[in-house]
Every structure is written in structure tokens, then in C-alpha cells.
Amino acid sequence: MLKFSYKYIVVCLVILSLACDTYARDKCKVGLLIVATGKYIQFVEPLIESARKYFLSDHDVTYFIFTEGVPPAGDDVVQIYQERLGWPYDTMMRYHMYAQHTDIFEDMDYLFATDADMLFVDRVGNEILGERVATQHPGFVGRRGTYEKRSISTAYVAPDEGQCYFAGGFNGGSKDSFLTMANAITEHIVQDLEKNFIAIWHDESHLNRYYIDNPPTVILSPSYCYPESWQLPYQKKLLALDKNHVAVRS
Description:
Layout: H1 6-26, E1 29-35, H2 44-54, E2 60-67, E3 77-81, H3 89-92, H4 94-100, E4 110-114, E5 118-120, E6 132-135, E7 170-174, H5 175-194, H6 203-213, E8 218-220, E9 226-227, E10 238-240, H7 245-249
Parallel strand pairs: 1-2, 1-4, 2-3, 6-8, 9-10
Antiparallel strand pairs: 4-7, 5-10, 6-7
Helix pairs in contact: 4-5, 5-6
């Protein structure tokens, strides 16, 4: 039978304790924010089920659902009541929704926002953790993208600005950085609305303007916003599901 000295056992316990402390420090609290008003609530249960399997499974994830409907039950699900605003305001005003409820995110280390009509299909891990996290738009890889060209908008991007166009379907970052972005985008959208103006791609246009002024620290490939029926040279991680847009928005 193997015999271990007292000193050896103490050293092992110290190493184990240090390892546990490191794990505890590395284990983060992450919020996944989902706006699912109206018919979009139908996508939430499969989205959360897929996230529980694939999304940052080494961390503590809480799902914040903005809806007037009934989200799936779970200790990790928090509902924030949100009435329907109608198209395009249901999505365009989502950063306003986040900015209105900063208190409920107080314990979070990171916040990520995803469209409701998405589905995780492969592991999403620590590679997405960063200060400001953006996803390359699958339709404009290597191209400039459709920025807002009208100078009346606070989302306006000049011809000599912008090199990488980002998707509005998935983004995030540290809690403080994300909420700073949410407040800035909200302010800019409100300024546009006061001029009776809506940017070409709504909140996505404002998101791209923000990233020009505040470059992302982590840029994700279209793997993290992969259109379901497309064939792209990227690994599928987060699918943007095919759907009848008119039917769902009605």
C-alpha cells in the first residue's frame, strides 16, 4: 500500500486549494439578453435549451428574456416585462430596453445579446469573452457593408470610414462596456427619432457606427451568426434560423 508523508499531503492540499481559487476566479457570471415580444417568443425555448448545452457551459449563465409572453421556466431564466412596440421598434429599441434595466445586471461579469430566432449548434467558449465583442456579418465578409450613408443620421458613416461590417444578431462584452454601448446607441436612436428619421438597418446601423468609434477588442467570424440555409466556409456555432419575416413580425 502506498504511503504519503504529512508534508506531501499538505502540499497537495495547497495546490488543490489554489486550483479551486483559480477556477472560482475564472468562472464568470454571464447574462444572455433576448428580446422576444409577440410571435418571437416561440423561438426562446429551443434557443435556451441549445444555449444550456453549448453556450459558455463552464460559466454561470442567466437568460434575461424581454417579453410580454411566457418564457420557459427555470432558475436561470429572468423575465423582464416588455410590451410589443411594433416593427421596427421591437428590435430597434432593444438597446433602450437593456439600458432601462441596468440594475438587474448588477451581478453579471459579461453581457451578450442575441436575436431570439437563433440556435446554438456547437460549443461557444471563452474565445468570445472580451471587452467589446462583435460578429462579422455573414453577408459582407471582406466587403464594406451597407452603412448608413445619409448624414442626417447619428449612424452616418463617411465613405472613407468603416472596413468591417458587423451583424446585429450577436454581440456583447464586459458588463460595463456593453451597457456603455447600450446607452450610447439608445441616445443616438432617440436623436434620430426626434428628427423623424430611422437609419437604414435600424439598431445595426448604430451598432456599426459605435464600433467605428470604439473598435471591438474581439471580432468573431460569421460562425456566430450563420444563416441556417447558407453554405459558408465557417464552422456553424450559432445559427440565424430561416423564417417568414412578415408572418413573425405581424
